[in-house]
TrEMBL record:
The keyword Electron transport does not apply. Residues 63-459 form the Amidase domain. The lineage of its organism: Eukaryota, Viridiplantae, Streptophyta, Embryophyta, Tracheophyta. It comes from Acer yangbiense. Gene3D superfamilies: Amidase signature (AS) domain. It holds the Pfam family Amidase. Residues 1-26 form the signal peptide. This is Amidase domain-containing protein. InterPro entries: Amidase_dom, AS_sf. Transmembrane segments: none annotated.
Amino acid sequence: MATKSSPPSVSLLSSLFLMLLALSSSSSSGSMTISSHGFSIREATVAELQLAFKQNKLTSRQLVEFYLGEIHRLNTVLRGVIEVNPDALHLADKADQERKAKAPRSLLGLHGIPILVKDNIATKDKMNTTAGSFALLGSIVPRNAFVVTKLIEAGAIILGKASLSEWANARIIPNGWCARSGHGRNPYVLSADPCGSSSGSAISVAANMAAVSLGTETDGSILCPSSYNSVVGIKPTVGLTSRDGVVPITHRQDTIGPICRTVADAVYVLDAIVGVDHNDKATREASKYIPVGGYIQFLKPSGLKGKRLGIVRDPFFTVIKESGIIRAFEHHFHTLRQQGAVLVDNLKIVSIDAILNPLVSGEGKAMDTDLKLDLNKYLEGLVVSPVRSLADVIEFNNKFAKLEMTKEYGQQGLLDAQKTDGINAEVKKALLNLVKLSRDGLEKLMKEQKLDAVVTPGADFATVLAIGGYPGINVPAGYDSNGVPFGICFGGLKGTEPKLIEIAYGFEQATKIRKPPPPIKH
């Protein structure tokens, strides 16, 4: 049994967190520009940052100081960051030394670049990995998550942990809320939904509190917050990125991907984190999809030329209530055609209503079953942990339900998972149905119509991609009458990331819609 202990008070933890931020950023003005060279960090891309490094206009220390300053300035409102890495400045100094010594690693694309990782991704350092829950505060992971190791090998600086919908929304709570950081807020419209569960990753890069970030998706958790926060999110083919060291929901659908301000930045991160991991057998099968030379080669401004794109309007357009958004997408379709794409309109996916209903498709039953099995395995593998099972987590939440740290929100999703009893006949039937829905749905449509991708508004298409383990990319597509962002989603079959990157980059370069959020009012 796990050792039980009373959690620290929220007020004490909040005070310590703010003190750490203040100390970390004491040498930073939080200004938009490194004044000595006139180089603006805000909105700078990875390529621009690397060029500034090369031209001695910027150091990694200055870059980290800037982001720490912005976190200190903005995070009390936005709550996109749970904690910062106390070693971030030390790691920045190390990167600067490597660059000065012309170490081979200093030539890598992410070298010296600060990245926030979602708090369900393990880091074997001085930070916690808690999935946003006090139940895991003080737990010790056995090692870095595989994707974190890959980022470190690529020279990236782990800046901190991004907030999330607690337990990756397995509790079924308001988007962006977790006990450890409170409620994450959309930087464009503070009262708007930031979506989830990778809310903090999207909030933070949108508001320039980090250069790039890493999120996770089971069903919509990268694509949706990217859409709502006007950033780019890549949801990779399941298995393309290892899930080892990531607090799980289901191994059948979980995937790790980048959330960044531009398609190019997201591709830099994707290139760094893909690869075979002996601790995640799904990576062996998916590794056949990784192109020789990586994904950067597919950043082609003319990437839309000759691509066949399918438009599925029903039901993805019928749910849009604002006519201005519909007009925006009709204009986008015109742009896609102008850039050389062939659009096949008014397509239908077989059994789409069943696919989008987790109670009908079987996704809900399968996910609940996997959550209990996969989470128990993860918790049992921790070196130290206050909780060792899903049952322990539920007990913790019940014990501290009256405290601010667990709020008034329930944990129905966790309770549903706890009631399951393994892979029984009913679950096997659900899994077979999910395979059938994917085969007869998206796969059949794309093969019959010879499509390179399907294009839909927003992130509602995420479920279609989720149940089949398919990839998707969200790109900023506009802002509604209230200023709330919305995105466009390009989805395809397994391993089609190269085509999706060409399409997404071509659209981004032809439109350049994204703009930074308005000034945050405290």
